[in-house]
Amino acid sequence: MAGQRRRPTLEDVAARAGVSRSLASIAIRGESGVSEPTRERVLRAADEIGYRPDTRARLLAQGRAKLLGVTFNVQHAFHAELIDAIYAAAEPAAYDIALSAVTPGRDESRALEALLGYRCEALVLLGPDSPESRLAELGRRLPVVVVGREVSDPSLDVVRTADDVGMRLAVDHLVSLGHRDIVHIDGGRGHKAAARRRGYRTAMRRHGLTDQVRVIPGGQTGESGAVAARVVLAERPMPTAVLAYDDDCACGLLDALIRSGVSVPDDVSVVGYDDSRISRLPYVSLTTIGQDARQMASLALNRAHTRLVGDEVTEREIVLSPHLVERDTTARPPVDSDRQQPHLQAVRSRAVR
Amino acid sequence: MAGQRRRPTLEDVAARAGVSRSLASIAIRGESGVSEPTRERVLRAADEIGYRPDTRARLLAQGRAKLLGVTFNVQHAFHAELIDAIYAAAEPAAYDIALSAVTPGRDESRALEALLGYRCEALVLLGPDSPESRLAELGRRLPVVVVGREVSDPSLDVVRTADDVGMRLAVDHLVSLGHRDIVHIDGGRGHKAAARRRGYRTAMRRHGLTDQVRVIPGGQTGESGAVAARVVLAERPMPTAVLAYDDDCACGLLDALIRSGVSVPDDVSVVGYDDSRISRLPYVSLTTIGQDARQMASLALNRAHTRLVGDEVTEREIVLSPHLVERDTTARPPVDSDRQQPHLQAVRSRAVR
DNA sequence: ATGAAAGCGCTAACAG
DNA sequence: CTGTTAGCGCTTTCAT
Fold this sequence. Notes:
Two copies of one chain form a homodimer. By secondary structure, chain A is an alpha/beta fold. Chain A has helices at residues 10-17, 21-29, 36-49, 55-62, 77-90, 108-117, 132-141, 163-177, 191-206, 222-234, 247-259, 277-280, 293-309, 336-340; strands at residues 67-73, 96-102, 122-126, 144-147, 157-161, 182-185, 214-216, 241-244, 269-271, 288-290, 317-320, 323-325.
């Protein structure tokens, strides 16, 4: 059934075209140094026997790999976008990309091991969760670019976006709409959550809203948002805007609010963070903070390339600004008379768990 | 900065341990044929200089690759699960997995090219969208297992689940709850959509509900579900249950229903298909039809392996049964008195677009 | 138990 | 323009 016979090699092509291997090699690679007729003969021969160069042998022979290893988390939607952008950015420089997935059943060190075995020249790690010491150890062996996480070891390059800027954008947006009573549902423990919390506080202060600063404990799941919704609903007066830790959290909140008969954005505005896929669903259409995957990927590959060719690098860390993605969950706050008597109606629905 | 010096080779290890390359090779691979002291010496030497075998060279030398190429769509959540399971299933057989992503900017033929260049021994294609002729062409060159799509070419192996069974499970479930007025929002054009539509009709007929068969045009997006919701809401009497083409469609429907003040599952039950991540979100908790990723992956790898070792295969196609995942969007239908006057209340909310 | 030698499929100097 | 000669890093006979 399936053709189990030996795959044709360059040798076969050369023989068929009646030339030497090296000439065939040159012709196949499209380099100069072959006469047009010969090239055509070789190409035709290759085509006829279905020849396909062996990437591994090719790289082995070349000594250098032109191979970038990329770890990503198969669960994380944003990584999908980054991968798309990475492929695109790798093309012009003719880098090959070796993907290694982190899954629930395959931890990051396994993913890294595999890439190392493939002799990747450099590594691009999307939101790695390994301890910094492990990453630093890698960084000492080959160029490593960490994407989307803050690490301080000098042997590691970093491309990330500024969380405090993101939070400021969100707060600015809400304030410009007329909101003052803006609460933050945080992301619990973790560096990122802390950075966003800090960003929220700073941004509020900047608008003279220090007194309105309120942080409600949340988390990184929709459920945590749903739980936080109860707290939000219980507040008197109810805040006019909620800034959630991330999109998942915001969606849980959103859903719980709507089920309680609160209208978004008429009664309360909601802002997420990440511009994840869920936030774009037409029936969610969440205002959120987005990161430019294309740019991040391109910068990360650039940096890897810079390291590989041995050029100097001035700033180890590249910090990008995220941007506001204005969708349909934010609007002007309700007029005061309305706020006194929030538009709560009992809607028959399954309980929010 | 980052160590640019040559990676240590087996030669280096051998030299350091004072043995020949071949012996070092045997020791490193843990094969028998080395004295214990020598093995330890080699292993220590390798460790000291940070040696790591070069997978490519290793495979090149071995002649065979033990490498399975896997294409997947970075957008598709179910593929993430399959990949996890594939890694797990590949481990015992010591297969290496080469991942090649299909992204908005990188089409499937590119993904396939890359894998072919890596001399994968066999291909596992997750939900491929290439024309069958292209797949068949591949199948003639090396073992190809198509996962989750129906193809008829004899050179291709298939592992998929039966859509008609899935639809039957959904209908059976609803009927057993007491529903009779069950509509189907379909997935538009496409093989899969047709298969599910057919499955729905057959299942309804089986319950003597031929007269209640109603198919509402839908699609594969949340938006299409939201649009279909309007049709559902306009029906008199309103159906007591809706069976959507997939989870995305079901979620759009769900959201639109809730915004219209219809309670799910009290007024109407909703069933999705795919058991995708979105259906599991705690605040969605959609009853749906699930496929066993672990089993599919394992069968796919098994099949690839069987082909590779040249064993006979009796059935080209492996068709699994999906299963019902009962969550919180299905319940007994409302009592008739209630149905006459469906519980519609105008909820102030942003319009469903 | 150990080592020498011959490739795997390819590219990269070199000579003609 | 073309062919010859060496390897890349590893595994694999096959002697010793």
